[in-house]
């Protein structure tokens, strides 16, 4: 399974590709797309979109793992992050690629065992898990790798939960049909 991890942001958008080979995780690529803060929003989103399209077409990931941002103190930062993440999700959806969102605390807990871990701890564990010779920099690159790792480890549980949900839905429909027939 190839997972593209995305740490969305307008100034720096981290992109990574991690492949799960049995129990081993292998980093295939990592990069950070940068846009100038003084550029128009539409231009910045276009730059991010162009880079993501290139990654999707070049790497052909099976799934995307995007950071879900739900609160920050700076509303402008939240909006930019959400807009960048939306562009990425849209481009993946247009190609029929599944998109999953993970919160920062989910990612930190998956990678370090501590949902409140700091960036240095996350970077150290990403380096160790992937057997990298050097720490990925900047932090956005490490965060993108952490997102991909998180999804690789959570994917089996997500699939089991989807199967259970589908089964429950079928059972509810069957029960409703029985009740309707009994009336």
UniProtKB/TrEMBL annotation:
Gene (name only): ruvC
Residues holding Mg(2+) 2: 67
SUPFAM superfamilies the UniProt entry points to: Ribonuclease H-like (SSF53098)
One GO MF term attached to the UniProt entry: DNA binding
Descriptive protein name: Crossover junction endodeoxyribonuclease RuvC
Cofactor remark from the record: Binds 2 Mg(2+) ion per subunit.
Taxonomic classification: Bacteria, Bacillati, Actinomycetota, Actinomycetes, Mycobacteriales
Gene Ontology BP, a term: DNA repair
Cited function: The RuvA-RuvB-RuvC complex processes Holliday junction (HJ) DNA during genetic recombination and DNA repair. Endonuclease that resolves HJ intermediates. Cleaves cruciform DNA by making single-stranded nicks across the HJ at symmetrical positions within the homologous arms, yielding a 5'-phosphate and a 3'-hydroxyl group; requires a central core of homology in the junction. The consensus cleavage sequence is 5'-(A/T)TT(C/G)-3'. Cleavage occurs on the 3'-side of the TT dinucleotide at the point of strand exchange.
Active site: 7, 67, 140
